[in-house]
């Protein structure tokens, strides 16, 4: 770890009058007593409805397998949907959805959201889905993804959402690992005006996944698809069956019953299945959204993430509904057909809070200020950022051009594993552009050196979290040993985040990036191992190494080194073919920007690829300690 250059010194102070009106007018007053985090979380849990109260707030007797609100009976759907069905909130908009081409708008009150969720739950139940069963959801950004997730949760089934951009190989692996008997998908999705054939990918994946008994298909693009009459069912046909109508009760579950698994990339081997539970996750996502974004009854909240990632789970689906808010879902991306798409939507739908990723901001910045300036963005009150560090230039552009200098930017640091924000700002505190803020209430964070000692302020080190929190993952599904060894063994008793960071003298944390073999490309998480194994599945490739290098818009880009098999020669065509291969066999996000053909890769004597050395070479930096390098 290195002695870092000076941290940027600019501070943006909130307008005191506005700040006084926020839920948390004084951060330190609430954030202070971290020692008593149990009371803090218990008080928040009391703001929600429980079928039966808990006996113990935090059971740490089997740490790091922490349990929260044990003995409590609950279902997250009761608090996200059912409890809003009485009184005036039943008519409040829960979801506003807009199609990619902007020609279709679908809105759902809490009342009609419940009807949709019940229909889905009735159908799933009729297909034999019950408590504890895993269901794989591979759907585009359409309302049905929310209904399907909530329907699973309502029945106590465990959803496993796979981002509908992943390849059939990646999907197959996730279906097999979770042993899903049901897959929910669509005929296709719209991507920049073109159809992406989802059902075809599912067919390919399911061919090699014998656990799957049923596939439910939502019609979205009208694309022709192959239907296996014994296995595939159009949702449109199912929903007209008498069995689909009528009431469906929400299952009474234990607080610690699983809610979902979500696969995310790790440093080695196969993706990790992060497991979250009903009670704690509910309390965590509800509380963080409420305090950090100060969400109010009249707000229209827009989280641009896809439900295929944790941000979509926590802050597009569960968090807003748990707060009884109106959540906005847009099928498309920021620049199709023109780079004013988002600004148009903010103006037309009167969005109050926009939560997005630095990579999106940077890509929109390139088109200049004229695009946002054509629109009235005065409905915006707060802005948010997530997924990777936001560089101060992008922060200031976002603040000045989109927020017109009026809207504080909440930079929220968290992970698939943490379920909810861990290091963040709140709107009333002074903001330091580029910093992730401070640990959320009840949390304490530290920056450590290799020996586990805190490093002096301003120096880079390994970021750890000290206190358990309700929305934390409970384990890695079917791999508890890996849960312990990855997160809790380096510094016993402390949660290893995998990030490096610095803390400044005011207690603000500055996230630098991953310290493991995880690369964040456009805010998406990829493991070098996944990229490399996709490479070697191509017949021309003997060996490959992937590293992340800085990229102006994407944050990081993938740079790959490839050793070809005997009989293959480097060429531009082969390079294109390999790029295509990665896109198809892993995901378009993983497409390398550069492929370099080499004769050999630097390795340790035990045969491990030294990516650190490759990175240093690519960046023209000193190679560091190469004493373990095998130079035969
Ligand atoms: C990794 C987790 C959790 C939301 C989406 C990503 C990086 C996340 C920030 C931020 C700097 C950030 C970290 C972290 N990260 N938010 N505000 N500032 N870095 O979830 O895919 O599990 O990735 O994203 O490196 O470890 P994820």
Q: Keyphrases for this structure?
A:
632 residues, alpha/beta, eight-stranded mixed β-sheet, 19 helices, 28% helix, binds 5'-O-[(S)-butoxy(hydroxy)phosphoryl]adenosine
Walk me through the structure.
The chain is of the alpha/beta class and 632 residues long. It is built from 19 helices and 32 strands. The protein has a nine-stranded mixed β-sheet, with helices on both faces. An eight-stranded mixed β-sheet has the order 12-11-8-6-7-14-15-25, sandwiched between helices. Helix 11 links the parallel strand 16 (300-303) and strand 17 (326-330). The two termini are 29 Å apart. The protein binds 5'-O-[(S)-butoxy(hydroxy)phosphoryl]adenosine (WT7). 5'-O-[(S)-butoxy(hydroxy)phosphoryl]adenosine binds at residues 264, 310-311, 385-389, 411-416, 436, 497-499, 511, 514, 520, 525. 5'-O-[(S)-butoxy(hydroxy)phosphoryl]adenosine (WT7) is lined by residues 264, 310-311, 385-389, 411-416, 436, 497-499, 511, 514, 520, 525.
- Find the count of extended strands (DSSP E, 2+ residues): 32
How much strand content do the residues show? 15-25%
Which bin fits the share of residues in helices? 25-40%
**Alpha-beta classification:** alpha/beta
Strand order of the largest sheet: 5-4-17-16-18-19-20-21-22
Mean pLDDT level: 94
Identify low-pLDDT runs. Answer: none
Number of helices: 19
Shape: globular
Rg on CA atoms, Å: 24 Å
Q: How far apart are the termini?
A: 29 Å
Biggest pleated sheet:
9 strands, mixed
Query: Hetero groups bound?
Result: 5'-O-[(S)-butoxy(hydroxy)phosphoryl]adenosine
């Amino acid at each position: 770890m290195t002695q870092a250059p000076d941290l940027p010194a600019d501070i943006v102070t909130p307008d005191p009058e506005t700040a006084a009106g926020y839920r948390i007018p004084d951060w330190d007053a609430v954030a202070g007593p971290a020692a008593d985090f149990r009371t803090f979380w218990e008080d928040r849990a009391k703001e929600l409805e429980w079928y039966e109260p808990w006996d113990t707030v935090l059971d740490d007797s089997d740490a790091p397998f922490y349990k929260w609100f044990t003995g409590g009976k609950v279902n997250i759907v009761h608090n996200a949907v059912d409890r809003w069905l009485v009184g005036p909130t039943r008519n409040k908009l829960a979801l506003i959805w807009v199609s990619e081409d902007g020609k279709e708008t679908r809105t759902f009150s809490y009342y009609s959201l419940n009807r949709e969720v019940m229909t889905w739950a009735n159908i799933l139940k009729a297909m034999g889905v019950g408590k504890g069963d895993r269901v794989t959801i591979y759907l585009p950004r359409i309302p049905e993804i929310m209904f399907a997730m909530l329907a699973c949760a309502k029945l106590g089934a465990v959803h496993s959402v796979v981002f509908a951009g992943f390849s059939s190989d990646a999907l197959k692996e996730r279906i097999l690992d979770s042993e899903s008997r049901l897959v929910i998908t669509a005929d296709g999705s719209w991507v920049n005006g073109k159809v992406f054939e989802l059902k075809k990918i599912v067919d390919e994946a399911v061919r090699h996944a014998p656990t799957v008994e049923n596939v439910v298909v939502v019609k979205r693009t009208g694309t022709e698809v192959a239907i296996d009459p014994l296995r595939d069912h159009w949702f449109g046909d199912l929903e007209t069956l008498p069995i689909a109508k009528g009431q469906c009760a929400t299952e009474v579950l234990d607080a610690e019953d699983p809610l979902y698994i979500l696969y995310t990339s790790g440093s080695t081997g196969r993706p990790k299945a992060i497991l979250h539970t009903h009670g704690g996750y509910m309390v965590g996502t509800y509380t963080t959204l409420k305090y950090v974004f100060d969400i109010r009854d009249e707000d229209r909240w827009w989280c641009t993430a896809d439900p295929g990632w944790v941000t979509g789970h926590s802050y597009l689906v569960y968090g807003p509904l748990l707060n009884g808010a109106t959540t906005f879902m847009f099928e498309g991306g920021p620049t199709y057909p023109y780079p004013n798409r988002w600004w148009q939507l903010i103006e037309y739908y009167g969005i109050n809070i926009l939560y997005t990723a630095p990579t999106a901001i940077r890509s929109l910045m390139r088109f200049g200020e004229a695009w946002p300036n054509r629109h009235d963005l005065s409905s915006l009150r707060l802005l948010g950022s997530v997924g990777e560090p936001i560089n101060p230039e992008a922060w200031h552009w976002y603040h000045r051009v989109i927020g017109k200098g009026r809207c504080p930017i909440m930079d929220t640091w968290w992970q698939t594993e943490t379920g909810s924000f861990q290091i963040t700002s709140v709107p009333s505190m002074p903001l330091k552009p580029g910093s992730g803020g401070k640990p959320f209430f009840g949390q304490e964070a530290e920056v450590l050196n290799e020996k586990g000692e805190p490093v002096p302020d301003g120096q880079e080190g390994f970021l750890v979290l000290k206190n358990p929190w309700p929305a934390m993952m409970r384990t890695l599904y079917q791999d508890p040993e890996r849960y312990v060894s990855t997160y809790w063994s380096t510094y016993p008793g402390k949660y290893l985040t995998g990030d490096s960071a610095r803390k400044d003298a005011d207690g603000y944390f500055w996230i630098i990036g991953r310290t493991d073999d995880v690369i964040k490309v456009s805010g998406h998480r990829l493991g070098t191992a996944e990229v490399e194994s996709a490479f070697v599945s191509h017949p021309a490739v003997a060996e490959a190494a992937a590293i992340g290098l800085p990229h102006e818009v994407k944050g990081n880009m993938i740079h790959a080194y490839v050793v070809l098999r005997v009989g293959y020669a480097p060429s531009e065509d082969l390079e294109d073919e390999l790029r295509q291969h990665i896109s198809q066999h892993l995901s378009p996000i993983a497409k390398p920007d550069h492929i370099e053909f080499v004769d050999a890769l630097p390795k340790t004597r035990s045969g491990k690829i030294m990516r650190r050395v490759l990175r240093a070479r690519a960046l023209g930096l000193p190679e560091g300690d190469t004493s373990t390098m095998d130079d035969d």
